[in-house]
Specification:
Elements lengths: L11 E2 L7 E2 L17 E2 L3 H7 E3 L6 E2 L2 E2 L9 E3 L4 E3 L1 E2 L1 H15 L5 H8 L3 H7 L5 E5 L3 H8 L5 E7 L2 E7 L4 E4 L2 E4 L7 E3 L6 E5 L10 E5 L5 E7 L1 E2 L2 E2 L1 H16 L7 E5 L5 H12 L3 E5 L12 E9 L2 E2 L1 H9 L4 E8 L6 H15 L6 E9 L4 H10 L8 H10 L5 H17 L3
Parallel strand pairs: 21-22, 21-23, 23-25, 25-26
Antiparallel strand pairs: 1-2, 3-9, 4-26, 5-6, 7-8, 10-16, 11-12, 11-18, 13-14, 14-15, 16-17, 17-18, 19-20, 23-24
The chain binds flavin mononucleotide (FMN).
Length: about 425
């Protein structure tokens, strides 16, 4: 059994163009939202080191680019000058890399870029230059498919386990039946599409190695690319009538788009620390409900993004949070938590690793955006208990005493701002 320190409903209104208003009513629902600014913030390294930590990923090189830490808090500490450098969040780095790949005419696919950077395929679309993509709701599937069926020629691409299948043909119109959208007709491309699972549709004009390329991409809820339809070509040129139809749809959905995506913050908190962080997290996510873990709504599937906040108990999320985390499937999810140990300690890192592993188990298909931890004051009763009964296993060294005292002022403003910056980044990655 792991021991502590072994290792060292609010109601928010918002609209798509406006800001949030917080009404502080527990466990109530809200109405919809807009998005926040690109996040840049200064972060004191020592503060960050001790008080807030967000799970990071290893650096990786590709095309001379360093993979950004998509789940990490970006800060660089110059030890000699003790200067804190302002850095952009990982998502901005991903955007920059993607934009320069497009300029440099390098060959890459959305899926290869996604796996290289540890994000979903759809997150790559949100990182594309805005004029190169229009993103709409999957509920427009049938209308869009019918328009695709008017194209003289299309190339349908299905990626499966690293292989790509391409079928250049005319598209058959389909009809709903038995839970599928069934396509059949004269064209050899027949099949059964799980239209219910198409959550987002993207019109992309991103060139491929400098060559004009127009595609309609279909994604599931957790941002996995299901299949793509490319505008057909004749003599290597995109067929003019197909191009006209593509831009007609792209423009229509650009100007007449209503994607409604709700998010939810669920927190578990005994003494209020995690609840404080939960409220900070909620404040930066558009259209976001907040509930305590004892009031979880029945249908979590309704939520596009779920953030779960736990308090650390014996090196893991507390029992209620653990049960919830283990039960999740097909979710865009991020975790946050408070604890008595330093957030960059092996104890805290182990907690992040183990809790994310619960979400990533094969077959669960969760899109895990990352985790954020910060210090939280420790219940005085627990401190007494530890002093009395655990003196041998957890001797009160001067270092431990200092840390426990330090924890008593957390979460502080800095922790809350760090949590906000990290979750703003997550929201931007999901296009919220
Ligand atoms: C029973 C109990 C067990 C704890 N175990 C750990 C632990 O293993 N590691 C740790 O860093 N903090 C541990 N803590 C400290 C809490 O995680 C920390 O104080 C947290 O901020 C409490 O959050 P809350 O105010 O939201 O309940 C424990 C606290 C309690 C009461």
């Amino acid at each position: 059994m792991k021991h502590f320190e072994e290792n060292s409903n609010n109601h928010k209104h918002c609209n798509r163009h406006g800001k949030h208003e917080n009404h502080n009513n527990e466990n109530k629902k809200n109405e919809c939202g807009s998005h926040s600014d690109v996040s840049q913030y200064k972060h004191n390294h020592e503060e960050g080191k001790k008080h807030g930590h967000c799970h990071g990923k290893e650096e990786n090189k590709h095309h001379n680019m360093q993979k950004p830490d998509m789940t990490g808090m970006p800060f660089k500490y110059d030890k000699e000058e003790e200067v804190i450098e302002e850095k952009v969040l990982g998502f901005n780095k991903l955007k920059e890399d993607l934009h320069s790949l497009v300029q440099e005419k390098k060959p890459f696919t959305i899926s290869s870029f996604a796996s290289m950077y540890g994000v979903s395929d759809l997150e790559v679309c949100y990182a594309m230059p805005e004029n190169m993509r229009t993103i709409t709701d999957g509920k427009n599937f049938e209308t869009i498919w019918k328009e695709l069926a008017t194209w003289e020629k299309a190339t349908v691409i299905i990626l499966h386990l690293g292989s790509a299948f391409e079928i250049s043909t005319k598209i058959n119109v389909g009809a709903f039946g038995h839970g599928y959208y069934n396509i059949m007709g004269e064209s050899p491309l027949e099949g059964h599409i799980k239209a219910d699972e198409i959550h987002s549709i993207v019109f992309s004009t991103m060139p491929f190695m400098g060559l004009e390329s127009l595609s309609v991409l279909f994604f599931d809820k957790t941002g996995r690319l299901i299949f793509s339809v490319y505008a057909g070509r004749q003599n290597r040129q995109i067929i003019e009538s197909v191009k006209t139809s593509f831009y007609k749809m792209k423009d229509e959905y650009l100007h007449n788009n209503s994607i409604s995506r709700k998010s939810l913050v669920i927190y578990s908190s005994l003494t209020g620390n995690t609840k404080q962080v939960a409220e900070a997290v909620q404040s930066v996510i558009p259209c976001c409900d907040i509930v305590s873990i004892d009031n979880i709504p029945e249908n979590l599937d309704e939520y596009y993004f779920t953030a779960i906040g736990y308090w650390v108990d014996r090196g893991l999320p507390d029992a209620k949070s653990k049960k919830l985390i283990r039960s999740l499937k097909n979710m865009n999810v991020a975790l946050f938590g408070t604890l008595g140990a330093y957030p960059d300690s092996p104890h805290a890192k182990g907690c992040i690793r183990d809790s994310e592993t619960m979400l990533k188990t094969t077959g669960k298909n969760n899109n895990v955006l990352g985790s954020f931890l910060c210090l939280g004051k420790i219940d005085p009763k627990l401190m007494d208990y530890m002093g009395k009964f655990m003196g041998d296993t957890h001797p009160v060294t001067p270092e431990r005493k200092a840390r426990l005292l330090e924890a008593q002022t957390h979460p502080d403003n800095n922790d809350l701002e760090n949590a906000k910056a990290v979750f703003k980044g997550f929201a931007e990655r999901l296009g919220l």
